Amino acid sequence: QVQLVESGGGLVQAGGSLSLSCTASGRTFSSYIMGWFRQAPGKEREFVASINWSGSITFYADSMKGRFTISRDNAKNTVSLQMNSLKPEDTAVYYCAAKTIGGVASTPTLYDAWGQGTQVTVSS
């Protein structure tokens, strides 16, 4: 099974930008659909974005469209999330996830593997 490790979280002011990365090891990375999710304290895990194996199809939560960009580099076994125009409500632990069946998806239970998460804090 693939192992996922996120990096790039931190503290940023509102309106700023942050880039997250997720590095995968194990099975062939290009066979996985990848996703980003987030979870704020006291809230359920929330879908952020998903990308297909080639990067040709991306899918975003409505509140992230136009601000966040998901991309992948299969040669480097990484998937990235570029976050712009950050808001305090974007504060959460951000998780990388992988799935092998089907296409891009927003349902957490469809994903087979998860990283440990990285904290993103946006100050007002």
Walk me through the structure.
The protein is an all-beta fold. The protein is 0% helix and 49% strand. The strands form two sheets. Strands 2, 4, 5, 6, 9, 10 and 11 form a seven-stranded mixed sheet that branches. Strands 1-3-8-7 form a four-stranded antiparallel sheet, with no helix packed on it. Strand 4 (33-39) and strand 5 form a beta hairpin.
Helix and strand topology:
Blueprint: E1 3-7, E2 10-13, E3 18-25, E4 33-39, E5 46-51, E6 58-60, E7 68-73, E8 78-83, E9 92-99, E10 113-114, E11 118-123
Parallel strand pairs: 2-11
Antiparallel strand pairs: 1-3, 3-8, 4-5, 4-9, 5-6, 7-8, 9-10, 9-11
3D shape: globular
Helix content: under 10%
Largest sheet: 7 strands, mixed
Strand content: over 45%
Give a quick precis of the structure.
By secondary structure, the chain is an all-beta fold.
List its salient traits.
seven-stranded mixed beta sheet; four-stranded antiparallel beta sheet; 11 strands; mainly beta; 124 residues; 49% strand; globular; single chain
